[in-house]
Amino acid sequence: MNSIFHYICKGARCTAACCVITLAPLFLAAQQDTQYVKDLYDRVLEFDESKLDSFSHYISQIDQLSKRLKFDKGDVLSERLRGIQAEYAGDYQGAISHYLNSLDISRKNGWENYEDCALGDLGIVYTNIKNPAKAKEYYKQALDLSVKRGEAYSIVNSLTNLGAICNMMHEPDSALLYLDSASAYTRRFPEVTDLVSLRNNLGNAWFAKKDYPRALAFFRENYQQNLRTGDSAQLWYDVLNMGDVMIEMKRFDSAGIWIDRAMRLAVHQGSRRKVADVELLKSKYHERTGNYRKAFASLKEWSVIDTSLVNAETRQTLLEMEERFKTRQREQENRLLQTQVEAAKFRSRNLLIGLLSAASLAVISGIFLYLNQKKNRKLEEKNALIEAQNEKLADLNAEKNSLISMVSHDLHTPFTTIQMWTQVLESGRDNWPEDDKKAISRIQQAAENGAQMISRVLDVEGSDVNRRRIQLENIDVAGLLRDLAKAYGLDASAKELTIIAPGNDHPIHILSDRQLLERAIANLLSNAIKYSPSGGSIWLEAEAQSGSVLIRVRDEGPGISKDDQRKLFRKYTQASSRPTAGEKSTGLGLYIVRRIMDELQGDVSCRSDIGQGTEFTLRIRS
Prior knowledge:
Elements: H1 28-45, H2 55-69, H3 74-88, H4 92-109, H5 112-128, H6 132-149, H7 152-168, H8 172-188, H9 196-208, H10 212-229, H11 232-248, H12 252-269, H13 272-288, H14 292-356, H15 362-426, H16 434-461, E1 472-476, H17 477-487, H18 489-494, E2 498-500, E3 509-513, H19 514-531, E4 537-545, E5 548-555, H20 562-566, H21 589-599, E6 603-608, E7 614-621
Helix pairs in contact: 1-2, 1-3, 2-3, 3-4, 3-5, 4-5, 5-6, 5-7, 6-7, 7-8, 7-9, 8-9, 9-10, 9-11, 10-11, 11-12, 11-13, 12-13, 13-14, 14-15, 15-16, 19-21
């Protein structure tokens, strides 16, 4: 079982040391009050998960004081603290929203120190949600800004964060390049004294390179410092890391002591995530000491806690879906009410015309009124029918949400259990026959494929695209296509395919949601690889055209018939042509692409002839 604990100490967060507030030129008493706001902010920055309930009180105080003093930086302080509060509560979507607001406020006002902090915060939260590539992107922006400012503390902080991300991405040599640079800065600038995160990640890198004594030296130094300062949050990382090192050094008595200390700290801090991580390390400890029954028990306990945390996030997402549904329902009711008001105006106008008509037209007016009343009764009956159907739809929607929640919970556990057991089996595979090794690999691959299949079905049935907020950012489209070409390079090489991506001589930028756009293009590229014959080529192209950006994915596959093109973007639809190497297809990929483009207010089209290849085009307004 591979160690994961040395990658959970995320990037270091900017603190008051690099976030100095420039006081507004107010009278002396106001200066003192403004300094008090800063002191409150600094105090909350030191809070850990155990003080989560205290955040709202302090944020409210900062808001009220800032408004009374007309303190211009109050909003950026509050937004950042709300982001940290949401992050500690596991509301990562809310945390990203607050951090992006903080980043926007900072950039609009030219506050580079707060911009630096917001970039670092975004890197941390994307690390938490297992998106290291996105985290690395924000950390690099933070490093560029820190170098521009010439702020030694910020430079060290950004380099340390980049080292942590490289450790998470299992790139210890790259991590050491960043971390050694950070160490060099600390020697040049002795005033940078907060070295806990730097030492921790240096230990992580050497642990990954299996130099356990050197890793232990860094963890032990951190442990002594955090013990002196009483920083229990960082102390938990030190204790857990030393327990893991002791396991690798086969000093199992010491390992057991450190693991027990880690569990006590996790329970004291009230962090279920930390308790789960300790259970996972206990499983590794029992497995290495040959007690497989206890190893499985700890692994099962980890799975129960981890699954419950995931389901808590799922339930929150479902509640958000339900709230959006109610909002749409209220909008429909408002439109219906407006229609009824217009109908009432129409009736009043007809009545006025009837009263002003000549007596000779009285009979005709009476007939007209009778027909109009009859029409209104039919309209009321239709409205009642619509309301009844809306109620049925609401019930069906709630039932669907409940079913999705149960499916995500019930199917997650068996696949997790299979993967856990294969991890236990993996640890002793060195002396196994080759056929047994292949069998374990096949079991693991089958479990992963099943989990991915469930995830994609839930993507569609759970309206996953529509339940996340659009996160707009400036995207280099050509750069995105080059990144995807690299990411799918191995899959293409396996079929001797060549992916041709645009160069960097003509950059094309667009304001959109990078995650959704990347997902749509990846689905098209994956299909192109599946349906292309060996030795062919796939082209990724981008073009700016009259207020829009066109993104094309073109292959040399068998093509798609006109009949198949008419139903191509429906759910679970599969074309008559088949993947060239027998790959599996769920019929969901193109449906998801269309859903994503609807969300981005764009469109997707297909151009193909049998035997002439296929070209998909995404059009997004620039």
